[in-house]
Amino acid sequence: MVQSVARAIEILRVLGTAARGAGVTEVAERIGVAKPTAHALLRTLEAGQLVAQDSETGKYRLGPALLELGNAYLETHELRVRSVAWADGLANRVGEAVWVGVLSGDHVLVVHHAFRPEGAVQILEVGAVIPWHTCALGKAIVAHLPEADRAALSRAPLAALTGATRTAPSALAEELEGVRATGYAVEDGEAAIGDAGIAAPVFDHTGEVVGAIGAIGPVERLLAEETRHGLAVAVRETARHLSRDLGAGRPATRRWVAAAS
Amino acid sequence: MVQSVARAIEILRVLGTAARGAGVTEVAERIGVAKPTAHALLRTLEAGQLVAQDSETGKYRLGPALLELGNAYLETHELRVRSVAWADGLANRVGEAVWVGVLSGDHVLVVHHAFRPEGAVQILEVGAVIPWHTCALGKAIVAHLPEADRAALSRAPLAALTGATRTAPSALAEELEGVRATGYAVEDGEAAIGDAGIAAPVFDHTGEVVGAIGAIGPVERLLAEETRHGLAVAVRETARHLSRDLGAGRPATRRWVAAAS
DNA sequence: TGGGAGGTTCAGTATTGCCGAACGGTGTTT
DNA sequence: AAACACCGTTCGGCAATACTGAACCTCCCA
């Protein structure tokens, strides 16, 4: 482990959460180093355009190179690249916005967002992060993780974002069991009031979950009795096709192939 | 300057250009360090999720945290935040896609993309980078940079992306003069054949250029004699309003206010 | 005009990161 | 089938390198 690099990464995290930027002194305090140390690290990051210094206030903020690197991450991301066509198709088929997400720590990271076909103004959510237990994507992924990983994630303290958020490990374990049985996960206002989601897991050629794909929208449209089932089927089918694209099929996931063909 | 951090940043750059990821040995060679050194740096970056290791091939690629940080950069970016509403308005007014960009080194970085209103499938270009001299956004920005910066950028070797790309410093200097005179810049198939752009500079409260906003689309629609002028006016007006939003007005940029009001 | 806060520079010290050599695994060649 | 070559990884010792305390400068505020 390289100490200075670890500290530099901490600095990026600090600047990412400090909306208006942060000064050398503040950064030094937050990461627990002397002021000149923080300064040297910041200058190095600045040279690489990972942070930028406000010419007036002297405060530091995140830099443009991060956006470039984030974009490069997306372009080299196997799941994301393959999912674009499938996500657009699904969005057109069900008439809702579609998200593709991966697990990053204990959060879900949205790596693709296909807009709702006849949508008005919609904001792009690529790059957004959501606690795994509050969204359908997260539950679909975690339900299919190896036992050990799943247990670790369920043990950690789970925040309640709305009154509907489930935080009890036992209730979640039960719900994940249901996800494995039906092949899809549902969220009903657990991350934001009124928003719902239906998502299914995506596997790669080793048979491990690599992410999930799902539809997002208002509770009224997504979870209405008459549409809900059809939507779940469409999402699940798309997830299977996408998994096949990624090479899933033979070893641990034969059942998917059998069901899809 | 912290050596190890600078090297870590180099590694990110290397991984960003290596489409299929890179191994320890390759990374070590590219940045000119011993194999164990590269390994230690990679492990540290991996702990911070800035890179991820492929569990099978052992190769390293960029990690999800970069997308999160890139997103955080966008959300704290003054110009980007303020431009969202103006860009959408402009896109609706002129019926074309609208980009907002900033200068990052000698490239333009797209920080916002408003889709064309009645557009079919459009891919999102946020995070994309384009050489400054091949796009309208870049020319609009560079034309209004301080003399010294402008000279430095024009001196550097300029790549030709299409047959229409202007690379001669003298021709560019003349064009930039024209940009300053008219208040907007034009691109005609200089980055990609058939694509055109019209952009105007955006200033902040200090009177310095911070970026540019412009319309993008096929040459036939954008540069047709009958629409071209109206489009230029709309773009320029939007840029002025956006500049005012950022506090531009009194000191060095009085002329903009006078013209706009 | 004085005080204080914040960003920046400097020089010394020992902590820390770097390298050479060696290990274990995998895929390829002979 | 055995030997080879390649790659990611680990270890230990040396010294280069990065961290710290103290001081400087500038700007802002009282």
TrEMBL record, chains A, B:
SUPFAM superfamilies, A to Z: GAF domain-like (SSF55781), Winged helix' DNA-binding domain (SSF46785)
GO molecular function: DNA binding; DNA-binding transcription factor activity
Organism domain of life: Bacteria
Domain IclR-ED stretches: 65-248
Pfam family, one: IclR_C
HTH iclR-type domain span: 2-64
Family annotation (Gene3D superfamilies): 3.30.450.40, Winged helix-like DNA-binding domain superfamily/Winged helix DNA-binding domain
GO biological process, one term: negative regulation of DNA-templated transcription
Keywords per UniProt: DNA-binding, Glycerol metabolism, Transcription, Transcription regulation
PROSITE patterns in UniProt: HTH_ICLR (PS51077), ICLR_ED (PS51078)
Role summary: May be an activator protein for the gylABX operon.
PANTHER family: HELIX-TURN-HELIX TRANSCRIPTIONAL REGULATOR, ICLR FAMILY, HTH-TYPE TRANSCRIPTIONAL REPRESSOR ALLR
Name of the protein in question: Glycerol operon regulatory protein
Taxonomic source organism: Phytohabitans suffuscus
Source species taxonomy: Bacteria, Bacillati, Actinomycetota, Actinomycetes, Micromonosporales
